[in-house]
């Protein structure tokens, strides 16, 4: 049995075009068919969750079918939401004649690189914290590899920075209290805000790093570049203590595919499959065949989901088991 | 006896006064450094958490105004913070 079956939160990553979204959708569908209340969240700016399920999906959970909900989150929308809350906090703190100027400046700052990403991360964290009690499984269909790694490493980077700032601020306040304020503690909203933010990061980190709750999987296809990219990704995530234990090997040529052309392709594919087995010794490999037609409707997605489920249960029979 | 105690208190006060200013200045310098670290991005030093520092903006803006006046700049030197 595969470890993903026990996780409450699953992040699905992979190179663009390998079938990440389809695999995530199939995984979610498989769980929902077993009557696990499942939420699938698409964080890829190029959303296709709605297209897969033929349903309009927005940034709040929408019911797709029995036991299955979906949502798509938009980074720009999220960063706008944050900016609005900052502007709200300004009310009453800044002299009214400055407000407009300040708003303009905040809007400019929010266009800085990293803003959308940070906003996206914030939303992911709040989804995890708020929805984890309402759903049995939450599955994140993430953006292509590089993006995801950066996103998942954010709490690690941010916590260090925030800790530094909180400590520094505390030192200043302590000195002030002792030396100038006769021991009366000083009120410092800056310290409070930093402290709250730091706690949020620590919460996020705790959840992401908890292997009993959270799992990571990458989708790849038996070709050179996806293998290399996945290898780098697994290594990088490892260095942030996020361990990928399961890989979905998608679009494997089935045995019954005939013809000279496909025979040749299969030969080459066998080399890559071997390489995958050799490279990813620590990972459980789930194989999904290449289907005759693309996964374009519910029937085909169900077929995909069934195959994935068998693989997860370790009941499937396929070529790689034979050797 | 009472007047003697009063003399000591006065003496203590006299000793502390110049230092009090010095301490205040030291702490203000620390505060300025904090400001710099927080908004280093505006000086071209990348700050990984720049986005999250926006939420401190309302509390910083007044202090920032004091800072640039103190530094002898009549107007805010940064594009990113316009307090006056």
UniProtKB/TrEMBL annotation, chain A:
ArsA/GET3 Anion-transporting ATPase-like domain residues are: 8-309
Among NCBIfam families, the record links this protein to: GET3_arsA_TRC40 (TIGR00345)
InterPro entries membership? ArsA/GET3_ATPase-like, ATPase_ArsA/GET3, P-loop_NTPase
Say which family it is in.
Belongs to the arsA ATPase family.
Entry protein name? TRC40/GET3/ArsA family transport-energizing ATPase
Cite the Pfam families for this sequence. Answer: ArsA_ATPase (PF02374)
Which species expresses this protein natively?
Salinibacillus aidingensis
Could you name the domain of life of the organism this protein comes from?
Bacteria
Automatic annotation (TrEMBL), chain B:
Family annotation (InterPro entries): CC_star_Cory, DUF7990
By its UniProt entry, which Pfam families does this protein fall under?
Answer: DUF7990
| Organism listed in the record | Salinibacillus aidingensis
Question: What name is this protein filed under?
Answer: DNA helicase
């Amino acid at each position: 049995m595969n470890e993903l079956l026990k996780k409450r939160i699953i992040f699905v990553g992979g190179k663009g075009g390998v079938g990440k979204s389809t695999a995530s959708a199939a995984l979610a569908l498989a769980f929902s068919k077993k009557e696990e209340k499942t939420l699938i969240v698409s964080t890829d700016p190029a959303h296709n969750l709605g297209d897969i399920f033929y349903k309009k999906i927005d940034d709040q959970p929408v019911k797709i079918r029995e036991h299955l909900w979906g949502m798509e989150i938009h980074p720009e929308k999220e960063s706008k939401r944050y900016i609005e809350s900052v502007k709200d906090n300004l009310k009453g703190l800044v002299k009214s004649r400055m407000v407009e100027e300040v708003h303009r400046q905040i809007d400019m700052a929010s266009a800085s690189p990293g803003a959308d990403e940070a906003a996206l991360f914030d939303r992911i964290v709040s989804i995890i914290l708020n929805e984890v009690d309402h759903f049995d499984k939450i599955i994140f269909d993430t953006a292509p590899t590089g993006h995801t790694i950066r996103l998942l490493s954010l709490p690690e980077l941010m916590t260090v920075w925030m800790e530094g700032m909180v400590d520094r601020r505390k030192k200043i306040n302590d000195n002030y209290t002792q030396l100038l304020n006769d021991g009366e503690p000083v009120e410092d909203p800056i310290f409070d805000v930093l402290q709250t933010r730091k706690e949020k990061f620590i919460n996020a980190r705790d959840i992401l790093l908890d292997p009993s709750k959270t799992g990571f999987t990458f989708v790849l296809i038996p070709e050179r570049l996806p293998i290399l990219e996945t290898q780098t990704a697994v290594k990088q995530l490892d260095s942030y203590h996020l361990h990928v234990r399961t890989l979905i090997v998608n679009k494997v040529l089935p045995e019954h595919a005939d013809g000279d052309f496909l025979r040749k392709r299969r030969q080459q594919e066998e080399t890559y499959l071997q390489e995958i087995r050799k490279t990813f010794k620590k990972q459980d490999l789930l194989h999904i065949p290449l289907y005759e037609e693309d996964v374009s409707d519910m029937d085909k997605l169900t077929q995909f989901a069934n195959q994935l489920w068998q693989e997860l249960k370790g009941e499937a029979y396929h070529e790689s088991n034979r050797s | 006896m009472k007047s003697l105690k009063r003399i000591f208190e006065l003496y203590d006060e006299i000793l502390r006064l110049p230092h009090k200013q010095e301490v205040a200045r030291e702490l203000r310098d620390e505060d300025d450094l904090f400001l710099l670290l927080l908004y280093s991005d505006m000086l071209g030093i990348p700050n990984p958490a720049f986005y999250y520092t926006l939420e401190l903006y309302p509390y910083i803006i007044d202090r920032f105004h004091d800072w640039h006046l103190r530094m002898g700049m009549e107007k805010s030197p940064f594009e990113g913070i316009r307090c006056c």
